[in-house]
Amino acid sequence: MGKIQEFEITFSRNQVVYNPGESISGTLKFKVTETMPCKAIKVNCNGFCGVTNKANDSDWTVQEQYFNSTISVAEKGTLKPGDQSFPFKFLIPATAPTSFEGTYGKIIYRVRAFVDTPRFSKNYKTEKPFYLLTLLNLNDVPEILGPNVSAVTREFTYLLVKSGSVVLSAESDMKGYTPGQVIKLSVNIHNQSGKTTSMVVASLMQKVSYETKKPTHDLRTIAEVEGSPVKPGKEAQWTEQMIVPPLPQSSLAGCDLIKINYYIKVSIKSPEVMLVLPIHIGNVSLDKKATAKPSTSTTRTPASVTDGDPTLPPRTAPKTAPKPTPRNRASSYIPPSAPPAEGGRGAAGGGSHTDEAHPTKSNVHMGELGPRTPVSPNSFSYAPGLTFPQNQRHSSGPVGPSEPFYPEVNANPMLAPSPLILPPDYQTTSYPHGQYWFWSG
Fold first, then answer.
1. CA 20 to 30 Å from 366, out of 130, 159, 167, 324?
2. What is the dihedral of CA 46, 430, 53, 219, to 10 degrees?
3. Compositionally biased, Pro residues: which spans (predicted)?
């Protein structure tokens, strides 16, 4: 490395995950082996998004910059032999989006350092990446409450002769999930034809769109389960569960070049029938109290009586009817003001079809997750000598990297932010790493 050795950047408390609006500080350290002149020593902090039309290519077709700040930690002079240390501090803008790395684009944040030397001398530089995470609270997503249902009817023919139709409907228990939660899916298939259908398949899909002159879409199957075929003239009900693996959140607020969407696809290959249920992936789970249906209990009013009964308080006698009849003990009670007590309900009448339980190829039985440790962003401060736009949000408490937390099955559920899902190392080629499949024999 020449006259400079051990040229590196370290962050305070070895922190690698930050929140927008926080300050990032650290130290530039290196060792000088012999006296050398330098023009300046500078530290730069920047963040940008780059997308391309070629997989795993860093020659960006379009770029979008979020911030780029440089400070000089040493001016022109001579560096003496020995260990050198220079502190630095930057403020991360509150509008910077969450870090992301995909096949056709990345959102990258890094700190770089430069030692500028006189002409014809070797310059030195180094860099170190860090990651931003903005917690997505699913309760703040518009129109996320309410049922998530969809239905489609497919009429099909064979050799220009109408063969029948298949009615496919599906419902998920919620519209938003956090990593580790379980998607509860209910599917109904009514085969109104004379042919047996193929297997029914439910898939959790991720669609990442990269905005260039010719937009690129990366579609991945994250998890998939299968159910049995439905015989002619039968109607079957199929229920299944899929656990949400660690995934980047749906929203990359502040980024205009990369969009992430998730949905559940339910399909039958023969005859070809398909429907989708859009969902959101976030970091703070939905408040189940807000999504629960209000109770419809009815308060019954006790029957009112006349003053003919000495054990009850007196009340005003009813108005005289046009054609009065002689009063007697049997007529001393007036009709109750509340509806009569409901009797036992009979069984509802069924149709001509036969309902069946729909077996599934993947017997996935996942329980509710237990409590997680809440996390919240750090408070921030402005770096001396630097100017940034006023932050748009407040935060409190430190945040650091953590691994996904999966407590034991059937633990009591508790509302809490999802564990931080760290972006992959920038040396990897794609994200997420492979596909997630859940099968059992």
1. 167
2. -120
3. 311-325
